[in-house]
């Protein structure tokens, strides 16, 4: 919210170079990387290698949907 | 009839190679056919390992993390052979993570990977835990190992790209998200992160293209639309930037903080 207020001030009243610099910093601060993926689920009694292990399959999959990656 | 199926299952289990048997925690444990005290003790331990694993798993399915952790802790204390050992540590780490014991979760996952260096799911979860506890150094080391073990894994590329982006290594981030998109061109989130890496190195035209692709693929992706407005503003495309901020501001589903910032940006551009 503070960032928004300062951004408005900088753009509205034209603080000049210094204002533009802080505005750039604030906009950069708003551009955060996407979220970390959720943990893969438990491994059941079926085990891992050679068995239908869903978490291992998700970890090795080349498809983002099967890898349980974050959605937009 | 049911008894004959059970007998058949036991015969198949007994006939399976030892390494295959060791992969799993069977529902039925071997019937003791010995009078040797050490052998009977070993069988009892084996039975306790299996039964506690099942109890822990059932508790995790219910979301009862404390009892789940207690059962898996006991399994780990009994020190079963691989891969049961690393599997129990992996499941214990999930319980710890849900109890917000992130350092303990990381320790169990590190121990699981030390016992089974090819344990991909443990690497994936350790990176997620490291990101949550802010240990970017360990996250990067594990992510490098994950990508080396599974170069085509979408999860490995995404997680290392994310770690790289958070630690300022835009070159690795760009490379990993680029590779991820090569196999998954419709993954909007990777377009967003790739755009972010490019924006951080002042390549606004490339960043604009990636952010635009992200919102084309996912029109409700408010964060990508906000990022698009930002690079448009930097490129001097004020009317287009204002339209992007307006779109975020009018989207009631977006994050309230982001919406407030978008409103401020939209109004600021309008007032000049």
Features:
heterodimer, A: 72 residues, mainly alpha, 2 domains, 3 helices, B: 272 residues, Serine Threonine Protein Phosphatase 5, Tetratricopeptide repeat, elongated
CATH homologous superfamily descriptor of the domain at 186-272 in chain B = Tetratricopeptide repeat domain
Q: List the uncertain runs of chain B.
A: 5-22
Terminal CA distance of chain B reads 84 Å
- Architecture per CATH nomenclature, i.e. the level-2 architecture of the domain at 186-272 in chain B: Alpha Horseshoe
Count of spatially separate domains of chain A:
2
Which range does the strand content of chain A fall in? under 5%
Number of DSSP strands of chain A? Answer: 0
Radius of gyration of chain B: 26 Å
CATH first level of the domain at 186-272 in chain B: Mainly Alpha
Structural class of chain A: mainly alpha
Distance between the termini of chain A: 23 Å
Oligomer, anyone? heterodimer
Largest sheet: number of strands, sense, barrel closure of chain A: none
Helix content of chain B: over 70%
Order of helices and strands of chain B: HHHHHHHHHHHHHHH
Mean pLDDT of chain A: 74
Write the H/E string of chain A, N to C.
HHH
Structural class of chain B: mainly alpha
Biggest sheet record of chain B: none
What share of residues are in beta strands of chain B? under 5%
- The counted number of beta strands of chain B is 0
Describe the structure.
The complex is a heterodimer of chains A (72) and B (272). Chain A has 72 residues and is mostly helical. Chain A folds into two domains: 1-32, no CATH class; 37-72, no CATH class. Chain A has three helices and no strands. The longest helix of chain A is centred in the N-terminal third of the chain and has 15 residues, at 16-30. Chain B has a domain at 186-272: Alpha Horseshoe (Serine Threonine Protein Phosphatase 5, Tetratricopeptide repeat), CATH 1.25.40. Chain B is 77% helix and 0% strand. The model of chain B is unreliable at 5-22 (pLDDT under 50). Classes of the chains: A mainly alpha (72), B mainly alpha (272). Chains A and B meet through helix 1, helix 2 and helix 3 of A and helix 3, helix 5, helix 7, helix 9 and helix 11 of B.
């Amino acid at each position: 919210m503070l960032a928004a207020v300062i951004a408005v001030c900088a753009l509205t009243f034209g603080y000049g170079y210094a204002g533009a610099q802080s505005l750039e910093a604030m906009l950069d601060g708003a551009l955060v990387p996407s979220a970390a993926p959720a943990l893969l689920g438990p491994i059941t009694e079926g085990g891992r290698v050679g068995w239908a292990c869903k978490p291992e399959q998700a970890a090795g999959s080349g498809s983002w949907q099967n890898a349980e990656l974050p959605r937009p | 009839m049911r008894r004959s199926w059970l007998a058949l299952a036991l015969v198949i289990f007994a006939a399976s190679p030892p390494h295959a048997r060791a992969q799993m925690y069977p529902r039925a444990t071997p019937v003791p056919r010995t009078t040797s005290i050490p052998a009977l003790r070993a069988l009892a331990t084996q039975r306790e390992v299996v039964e506690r694993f099942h109890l822990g798993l059932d508790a995790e399915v219910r979301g009862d993390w404390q009892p789940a952790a207690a059962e898996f802790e006991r399994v780990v204390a009994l020190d079963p052979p691989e891969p049961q050992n690393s599997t129990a540590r992996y499941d214990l780490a999930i319980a710890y993570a849900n109890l917000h014991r992130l350092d303990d979760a990381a320790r169990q996952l590190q121990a699981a990977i030390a016992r089974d260096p090819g344990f991909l799911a443990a690497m994936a979860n350790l990176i997620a835990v490291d990101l949550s506890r802010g240990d970017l150094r360990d996250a990067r080391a594990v992510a490098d190992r994950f990508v080396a073990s599974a170069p085509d894994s979408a999860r490995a590329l995404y997680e290392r790209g994310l770690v790289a982006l958070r630690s300022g290594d835009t070159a690795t981030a760009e490379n990993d998200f680029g590779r991820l998109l090569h196999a998954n061109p419709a993954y909007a989130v990777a377009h967003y992160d790739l755009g972010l890496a490019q924006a951080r190195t002042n390549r606004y035209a490339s960043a604009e293209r990636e952010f635009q692709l992200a919102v084309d693929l996912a029109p409700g992706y408010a964060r990508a639309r906000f990022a698009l407005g930002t690079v448009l503003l930097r490129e001097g495309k004020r009317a287009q930037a204002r339209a992007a901020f307006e779109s975020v501001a009018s989207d009631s589903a977006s994050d309230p903080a982001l919406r407030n910032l978008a409103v401020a940006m939209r109004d600021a551009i309008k007032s000049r």
